[in-house]
């Protein structure tokens, strides 16, 4: 076999390269890797004479097509793989994981590669409930809304791979594997953090309640599964790979601490990580029964696998110590290093640091990252250009000057984080007045809980009216990310016809004026949320409905909208729901044209919607309405 392994200088790719060389010493092995902060040529040095190493980016067509010369089999590991980092540097994740995969497929087809294997992850399926026995199988649909950009980009890459298969019928397979452990793993991932911290007598951080579950598999078992898929896997098929070894992070931390011979008080609970899905577990029946795979280390020898890994990190400190100093650079167009991402060992989290890297800092990972990043389009770069202006604007605001030092510090720290910069930019645009009242200060910032499916920020201001009466006013900014919530139009149906659109009039914080808006701005749309909306509508309209029944008649999906005027990159899902009020006893409900100055729910007769459109400047509302108008909804004539 003449095999090209992308990402072979990373954790799993290098383990696979060693495995393949040992099992198939006669094969010609090439490794293509751009040596990002996560790639390490030192890992391959001992076998560098037996393989061909090509330093290059999978997005670079020239390098890819050169590397593919004479190759019949391509195993694609190369990826940006760390969930925490994807929050700070989304464009690189998209560029490598999605575009890079497509480039490889296209070039592989041109080069006549006969076998393409895509390495994927179980994270594409989303999270499973914590206290359940459910497991992912090949039939589990991919999560419609993966929780983080790593998972989202891998899912997108897999879709591209399957589309490519459908179009070309090239011999393609995919494997979605669970959480790997073993030697050569970058010390930012959980198992190496625990081990390396113990070696240095630093407390072991355990995120959240420590109950999050992952299915742990040794990289050697992962490699043997890939080998079998390459030998016997059917084209166009997906295989799930896992060791039936689902364990909580708390269990893993304790187990490693015990095997290491340390005291359990070395474990320290710290706040949760971003996008820490609750549980992943794999049902590997298909690869076991159809291909005859059997993990060698598996669940039974998990202790041995962990002991061997601990031993490896103890004995190979020269390998991992330099990596602790590595910083992944984020560049602006003048190629001045302006921000970097590094690891905080105490919290086990990735830090985004705004500023230049000192000369003495290890810059090993820099050269490759520099060439790789598309600086023109870079997410952070745009923030950098605007940052100074935004901060100056912010500091000129009276409400900001009156806010506590603690709040000011928090706002500024949100400003240097790309995923929350838009929020600060939005704050900086706030005037000192709200519809004639004075905004005194920002009193509280509340962070949305990702576990409810959305990440966002609530801001609470102290406001004073002309009579010097004080009150609190708040608003919510939607966060960046795939789970950006839902907004909806509520339509009212009576006796088979859609007759009204329900709108809400309220004091809108962004403009400080009373405006029409959509009643719904929701973290997600599910049965209980919908039921709540229908009941609230009934209550707000003061409707007395026979049998107490306002009925949810229809849910219409209107796609996603981008962007929000609040935080950057928000893409809420738009829906219209139809509520049947046919059983309503009193037909004389409020009409929009009569209650101009009121706040609260206002019903607009469908035939008068053009009046509303002229008065409304809510982007969600207008987009949702336009999209609705383009669909032929039964009983609705806009
Ligand atoms: P890693 O971060 O350790 O290694 C990734 C490698 O890819 C690095 O050597 C890096 O230099 C290289 N790379 C990144 N961008 C590149 C680019 N644009 N061009 C060329 N090379 C590039 O990751 P890993 O943990 O070894 O994961 C490897 C693969 O396995 C990934 O596709 C990942 O999604 C998948 N996977 C990982 C796990 C896990 O537990 N780590 C589980 C399931 C699947």
Q: Provide the list of bound ligands, each named once.
A: nicotinamide-adenine-dinucleotide
* Shape designation: globular
Mind telling me which CATH architecture of the largest domain this is?
A: 3-Layer(aba) Sandwich
Q: Total strand count, please?
A: 26
Tally of helical runs:
20
Task: List the defining traits of the structure above.
seven-stranded mixed sheet; globular; seven-stranded parallel sheet; Nucleoside Triphosphate Pyrophosphohydrolase; 20 helices; alpha/beta; 34% helix; binds nicotinamide-adenine-dinucleotide
Please, could you describe this protein's structure?
By secondary structure, the protein is an alpha/beta fold. The chain folds into 3 domains: 231 residues, NAD(P)-binding Rossmann-like Domain (Rossmann fold), CATH 3.40.50.720; 99 residues, no CATH class; 146 residues, Nucleoside Triphosphate Pyrophosphohydrolase (Alpha-Beta Complex). The chain contains 20 helices and 26 strands. Strand 5, helix 6 and strand 6 form a beta-alpha-beta unit. Helix 5 runs parallel beside helix 6, helix 7 packs parallel to helix 9 and helix 9 crosses helix 11. The protein is globular, with a radius of gyration of 28 Å. It starts with a strand and ends in an 8-residue tail after the last helix. Bound molecules: nicotinamide-adenine-dinucleotide. Nicotinamide-adenine-dinucleotide binds next to helix 1, helix 5, strand 5 and strand 7. The site of nicotinamide-adenine-dinucleotide has 31 residues, from helix 1, helix 5, strand 5 and strand 7. It comes from Candidatus Woesebacteria bacterium GW2011_GWC2_31_9. InterPro entries: dTDP_Gluc_deHydtase, NAD(P)-bd_dom, NAD(P)-bd_dom_sf. This is dTDP-glucose 4,6-dehydratase. One of its GO terms (molecular function) is dTDP-glucose 4,6-dehydratase activity. Pfam families: GDP_Man_Dehyd.
């Amino acid at each position: 076999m003449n095999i090209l392994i992308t990402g072979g200088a990373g954790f799993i790719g290098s383990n696979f390269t060693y495995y393949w060389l040992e099992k198939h010493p006669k094969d010609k092995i090439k490794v293509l890797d751009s040596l990002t902060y996560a790639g390490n040529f030192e890992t391959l040095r001992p076998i560098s004479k037996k393989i061909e190493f090509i330093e290059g980016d999978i997005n670079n067509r020239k390098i890819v097509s050169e590397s593919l010369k004479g190759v019949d089999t391509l195993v694609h590991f190369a990826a940006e793989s760390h969930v925490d980092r994807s929050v700070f540097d989304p464009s690189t994740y998209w560029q490598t994981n999605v575009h890079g995969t497509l480039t490889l497929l296209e070039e592989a087809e041109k080069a006549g590669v006969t076998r393409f294997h895509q390495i994927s992850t179980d994270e594409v399926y989303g999270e499973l409930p914590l206290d359940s026995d459910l497991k992912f199988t090949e039939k589990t649909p991919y999560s419609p809304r993966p929780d983080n950009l790593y998972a989202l980009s891998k899912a997108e890459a897999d879709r591209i791979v399957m589309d490519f298969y459908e179009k070309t019928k090239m011999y393609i397979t995919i494997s979605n594997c669970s959480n790997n452990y073993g030697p050569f793993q970058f010390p930012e991932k959980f198992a190496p953090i625990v081990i390396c911290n113990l070696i240095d007598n630093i407390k072991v951080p355990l995120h959240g309640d420590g109950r999050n579950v992952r299915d742990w598999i040794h990289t050697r078992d992962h490699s043997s599964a890939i080998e079998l898929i390459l030998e016997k896997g059917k084209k166009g098929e997906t295989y799930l790979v896992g060791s039936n070894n689902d364990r909580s992070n708390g269990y893993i931390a304790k187990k490693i601490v015990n095997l290491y011979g340390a005291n359990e008080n070395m474990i320290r609970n710290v706040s949760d990580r971003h996008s820490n899905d609750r549980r992943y577990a794999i049902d590997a029946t298909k690869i076991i029964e159809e291909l005859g795979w059997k993990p060698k280390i598996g669940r039974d020898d998990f202790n041995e696998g962990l002991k061997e890994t601990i031993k490896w990190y103890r004995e190979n400190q020269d390998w991992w110590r330099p990596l602790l100093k590595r910083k992944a650079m984020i560049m602006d167009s003048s190629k001045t290093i302006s921000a970097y991402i590094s690891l905080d060992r105490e919290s086990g989290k990735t830090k985004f640091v705004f500023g230049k890297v000192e000369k003495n800092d290890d810059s090993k990972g820099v050269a490759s990252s520099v060439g790789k990043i598309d600086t023109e389009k870079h997410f952070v770069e745009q923030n950098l250009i605007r940052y100074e202006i935004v901060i100056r604007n912010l500091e000129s605001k009276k409400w900001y000057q009156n806010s506590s030092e603690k709040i000011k510090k928090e706002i500024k720290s949100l400003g240097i984080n790309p995923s929350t910069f838009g929020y600060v930019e939005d704050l900086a645009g706030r005037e000192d007045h709200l519809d004639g009242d004075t905004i005194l200060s920002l009193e509280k910032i509340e962070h949305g809980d990702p576990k409810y499916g959305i990440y966002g920020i609530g801001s609470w201001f102290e406001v004073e009216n002309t009579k010097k009466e004080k009150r609190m006013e708040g608003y919510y900014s939607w966060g960046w990310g795939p789970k950006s919530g839902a907004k909806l139009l509520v339509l009212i149906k009576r006796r088979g016809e859609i007759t009204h659109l329900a709108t809400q009039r309220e004091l809108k914080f962004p403009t400080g004026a009373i405006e029409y808006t959509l009643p719904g701005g929701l973290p997600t749309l599910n049965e209980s949320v919908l039921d709540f909306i229908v009941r609230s509508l009934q209550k707000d309209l003061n409707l007395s409905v026979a049998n107490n029944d306002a009925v949810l008649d229809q849910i219409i999906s209107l796609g996603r909208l981008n962007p929000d005027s609040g935080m950057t990159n928000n893409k809420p899902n738009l829906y219209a729901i139809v509520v049947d009020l046919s059983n309503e006893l009193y037909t004389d409900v409020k009409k929009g044209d009569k209650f101009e100055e009121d706040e609260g729910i206002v019903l607009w007769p469908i035939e008068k919607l053009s009046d509303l459109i002229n008065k409304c400047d809510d982007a969600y509302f207008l987009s949702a309405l336009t999209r609705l108008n383009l669909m032929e909804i039964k009983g609705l004539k806009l």
